[in-house]
Design goal:
By secondary structure, the protein is of the alpha+beta class. The chain is built from 9 helices and 25 strands. The strands form 4 sheets. Strands 1, 2, 3, 4, 5, 6, 7, 8, 9, 10, 11 and 12 form a 12-stranded antiparallel sheet that branches. The chain has a 5-stranded mixed sheet with strand order 21-24-25-22-23, with no helix packed on it.
């Protein structure tokens, strides 16, 4: 069968061999029993999307060509020789003002965009900025019988290796004392993740140092995965042949993983996505989802993103259901929507219903549709879940034991008083443990006279002080070296200078409001284990392991 050139002005056929795209692809799986029919439907959608100007003033599709298995591409080969059933390529021209100029200026930028779609058996790879990932996501939601994204867990576990970069988003309810998102880099981050600090963050993207089993494989080293959007990025390719080879190797890996059981979760304590909505209850908070990549977003979605960033958002939930009432207020007018998370393919989507209030402005009539497609808002639930309209997460509750907890008798001491009163640090140090000192520092000084003690003086802060209790009452730890005239009470700065080989020990008040749960108090002293010479802390009233 010969190459098929669509209704546009020219053919890309002579130019394909000279292309060298950056390998960033969206991968889909055919759900249609006839993959060729699903691919043809996708091509029609891509050609229609290429005629949508988005934020540009004008757009024109220049070429659109489909190559079937036996059609030779000059300088490259046939799709069948390259390991594919068919290949579709198209280009379009956009005219728009510079980003720093309004449309009234006569200055215009002209840019060209390339779109490539390849099918290998039941898997399809799409390269290019057209359509945007939001536009493609809505089309897939409308046609689940044709194609679907690769399941989150499959894509997240298909390429195993040292994790060099992680981008995460918090599943916890936003609060001033904890970041909403984190970006990390390192040599092997799976060993650096903290089960206690990172268990309420979800992975949005990860860079993996991937080493394929085949030493001759082209795709290796740093691969970036974005499971929520079914996207994989590698690097710039030297020509179309190397691009197509890289795509084929990626699809081969995914094909093998899809044929087997779901791969093991390789991101340690980070929250895994789930599909079970039966336990999602009581919406308590809502925030606009981060949108770091706005360049390829269509204009209507961009307007909704900017509107939600400036509007006042409130959510109202009920204890026995996942349905939330979203109140959107802008310039004194409020509209209310019901948001109900529902299963959709291998993800979650919000069912959106306008129920009350002033209708939205005309330019935002598409807000409901874009809320349905997801990734504009993140709703947090008291059940520990968070949903952004595409993926559902649940906070991991760590089961790590806090070994050797000893409950002490705090009778005669004030558990809300950290240290005795004093005008200066030296005076405070001298008063600790003396007659009449009823502070927590005094309790520790009178109770423990031997061993090592690590003191943490801030929520979430790595311990910065350690003292040798055999020479110093433990509560004397401070920020500078001093000498107490009443005795050899030294303080030491710099926790890296000491490696105390002791088991974990937390000191808690004897009176707890809940049986078996240590009560919260104003200061916590924790002894270190041999494996880790830094303090743990208790920020929310729950014990934490060192």
């Amino acid at each position: 069968m010969s190459a098929k050139t669509n209704r546009f002005s020219g053919s890309l056929h002579p130019l394909l061999a000279g292309l060298h795209p950056y390998l960033t692809i969206t991968v889909l799986e055919c759900t249609e029993t006839e993959p060729a029919a699903a691919f043809q439907a996708l091509i029609r959608f891509l050609d229609d999307a290429a005629q949508e100007p988005g934020q540009a003033l004008t757009c024109q599709q220049l070429t659109a060509t489909t190559f079937f298995s036996d059609e030779r591409i000059d300088g490259v080969g046939t799709p069948q020789e390259l390991g594919f059933d068919s290949l579709h390529a198209s280009t379009r021209q956009l005219v728009r003002p510079p980003s720093w100029a309004t449309k009234q200026y006569e200055l215009l930028d002209i840019s060209h965009q390339l779109t490539v779609a390849l099918r290998r058996n039941r898997l399809v790879a799409i390269y290019g900025d057209t359509p945007s990932k939001e536009r493609l996501g809505r089309w897939l939601d409308e046609h689940p019988e044709l194609l679907r994204p690769i399941p989150y867990r499959v894509l997240a576990g298909a390429f195993v290796g040292d994790q060099r970069s992680l981008w995460t988003r918090g599943v916890h309810t936003p609060r001033p004392g904890k970041q909403d998102s984190k970006a990390m880099t390192g040599l092997r981050l799976q060993d650096a993740l903290d089960p206690l600090e990172d268990s309420d963050f979800s992975m949005t993207a990860a860079a993996i140092a991937y080493q394929p089993p085949d030493p001759k494989a082209l795709v290796r080293d740093r691969i970036t995965l974005s499971p929520q959007w079914s996207r994989i990025s590698w690097r710039a390719t030297s020509d179309l042949a190397s691009f197509v080879t890289g795509v084929r190797e990626i699809l081969e890996v995914l094909d093998k993983v899809l044929a087997d059981a779901p791969p093991a979760w390789q991101f340690g304590p980070l929250t895994e996505p789930e599909q079970d909505l039966s336990k999602v209850r009581f919406a308590v908070d809502v925030s606009a989802e981060e949108q770091p990549e706005l360049d390829g977003v269509d204009e209507a979605t961009l307007r909704c993103v900017e509107f939600l960033r400036t509007a006042q958002l409130e959510v109202e939930g009920t204890p026995d259901t996942a349905t939330a009432t979203l109140h959107v207020t802008d310039h004194g007018t409020t509209s209310s929507f019901l948001l109900t998370p529902e299963p959709a393919g291998n993800g979650i989507r919000f069912r959106v219903q306008h129920v009350a209030g002033t209708p939205m402005p005309a330019e935002l009539h598409g807000l409901e549709d874009r809320l349905r497609s997801g990734n504009l808002l993140r709703v947090h639930y008291r059940s520990g879940h968070a949903c952004n309209g595409r993926t559902l997460y649940r906070r991991n509750v760590s089961g790590m034991p806090f070994r050797n907890i000893k409950v002490g008798d705090f009778t005669g001491y004030h558990t809300t008083v950290e240290k005795p009163r004093g005008r200066r640090s030296r005076e405070i140090h001298q008063l600790i443990g003396t007659s009449g000192d009823t502070s927590l520092f005094g309790w520790v000084a009178n109770r423990y006279r031997t061993g090592w003690l690590v003191c943490d003086d801030g929520s979430g802060e790595i311990a910065d002080r350690q003292a040798d209790v055999r020479r110093v009452p433990p509560a004397v730890a401070g920020r500078s070296a001093t000498r107490n005239p009443e005795g050899d009470h030294r303080t030491v700065r710099g926790h890296d200078r000491f490696r105390p080989p002791l088991t974990d020990l937390a000191l808690w008040p004897a009176s707890s409001p809940h049986p078996g749960v240590p009560a919260r108090c104003g200061g916590i002293m924790v002894r270190c284990s041999a494996a880790r010479s830094s303090a743990s802390w208790v920020a929310s009233g729950a014990p934490r392991a060192a």
